[in-house]
Specification:
With 99 residues, the chain is an all-alpha fold. Helices cover 74% and strands 0% of the residues.
């Protein structure tokens, strides 16, 4: 079984493909239309659901992964407000309930 840190690392990789960190946004294409971002975020949440089920994350595990992901996002330079918004949406979309 993967560690919480490894699961968070997989999620940050997916998120970075959707929305590059601020330090790399100028070098890559800018963030697209709202509909494109929304669809990409749904794919991110789908991946989170798959990882949750694959690793059989309980409530404690989900919290640890979310906390690790938050730290990684902040370390990559994402704004704190964005981190908070993404993590709240992640918890509500992919980490709530039994599974």
């Amino acid at each position: 079984m993967a560690t919480y840190s490894e699961i968070a690392a997989q999620l940050i990789e997916v998120f970075q493909r959707i929305m590059p960190p601020p330090s790399r946004q100028k070098a890559s294409r800018s963030v697209g239309k709202a509909a494109d971002v929304s669809g990409a975020m749904e794919r991110f949440y789908d991946e989170a659901r798959v990882l949750r089920e694959r690793h059989r994350l309980g409530i404690y595990g989900r919290a640890r992964v979310a906390f690790e992901l938050q730290g990684r996002m902040l370390k990559e330079g994402y704004p704190a407000d964005l981190c908070r918004q993404v993590l709240i949406s992640l918890v509500l979309s992919a980490f709530v309930g039994r599974g």
